[in-house]
Design goal:
About 55% of the residues lie in helices and about 5% in strands. It has about 180 residues and is mostly helical. The chain has a single domain, classed as Four Helix Bundle (Hemerythrin (Met), subunit A) (Up-down Bundle), CATH 1.20.120.450. It has a two-stranded antiparallel sheet. A hairpin with a 2-residue loop joins strand 1 and strand 2. The chain is flat. The two termini are about 25 Å apart.
Length: about 180
């Protein structure tokens, strides 16, 4: 097994895990919740989703052959809360992730050390992937945080619930012994 292929497998799993956190959060939110923001300086879930999707479509379209900051992208518009519904937001959300996963599935071991550009800055494919992973994790964390605040006592935990750490550990240990 080549190291690069193992890396691509792991990266796809990590991106799927991030998407899953976002999906599970958004599923808990109402139409009104997706547009909530604390103040003028903060973004709603709908805005964060628009930004993530805009970034994904720009970065991952023609990934190996054109700059990741496409001329058709209007980043500033991504920060306007103008999505009309949760359904429209989900369509935007899926468009970004589908673009990302299509490209990742096409990458091969030998691509990882090729050069790509983002706003004219040279990156290896490996560096570009890591850059996007950190960026997406940052924003998914924001979405989860907003969701937890809005849902409060109705929040369905996406990880190990408070007070259940030992129970979870024992469950995982038993699972690994099988």
């Amino acid at each position: 097994m080549k190291l690069g292929n193992e890396y691509l497998k792991i990266v796809k799993e990590r991106f799927h895990s991030l998407k899953d956190l976002g999906d599970k959060t958004v599923n808990q939110l109402s139409e009104g919740d997706i547009h909530w923001n604390l103040n003028e300086a903060s973004n709603s879930v709908a805005v964060i989703v628009k930004h993530l999707s805009g970034n994904m479509v720009s970065r991952w379209s023609d990934f190996l052959t054109s700059d990741g900051e496409k001329t058709y992208r209007n980043r500033d518009e991504e920060f306007e809360d103008d999505l009309s519904s949760k359904q429209e937001m989900l369509i935007v959300w899926e468009k970004g992730w589908n673009t990302l996963f299509k490209t990742l599935n096409e990458l091969e071991d030998q691509d990882l050390l090729k050069d790509v550009f983002i706003r004219g800055e040279r990156h290896t494919v490996l560096e570009a992937i890591e850059r996007q992973m950190a960026h997406y994790a940052y924003h998914i964390g924001q979405i989860v945080y907003i969701g937890k605040q809005l849902r409060n006592e109705y929040w369905e935990s996406l990880s190990i619930p408070v007070g259940k750490s030992e129970e979870y550990l024992q469950k995982m240990l038993k699972k690994s012994q099988k």
